[in-house]
Amino acid sequence: MFANAVFVATLIFLALGFWLTGELRFLTPWRSFILHHDLQSIALYCALLFANILGITIWIERKFFLRDAGRKLRHLDQEIQTGQSELSEEILSRFGESEEEQ
Question: Are 46 and 21 found together in one domain?
Fold first, then answer.
């Protein structure tokens, strides 16, 4: 999930960067002056912007893509414990021994 969020945040950040490059084309004659005096501030702002986009992306993924994960896992656990699933024998044989030892 984190890798997907980083990928989406990177795409959004690059899209914003390309759009902003087009919008600020009139500053091209002063590019070296601006970068020389304000590079640290620009880099810090870009890092904070990327962190915020990443946080929003993770929140959206958790909100919409993991909505029913707990209910689905509880349902799967009930199927495994009752033996109604085809995978229950394999899962119990693989993981059942570790639960008995504890």
Answer: yes
Task: State whether the Cα torsion 12-18-19-24 is positive or negative.
Answer: positive
Burial track 29-51 (b if 16+ CB lie within 10 A, e otherwise): eeeeeeeeeeeeeeeeeeeeebe
Domain with 90, as residue range(s), is 71-101
Contact 60, 11 (CB under 8 A): no
Amino acid at 60: I
Over residues 3-61, the pLDDT tens digits come to: 999 999 999 999 999 999 999 999 999 999 999 999 999 999 999 999 999 999 999 98
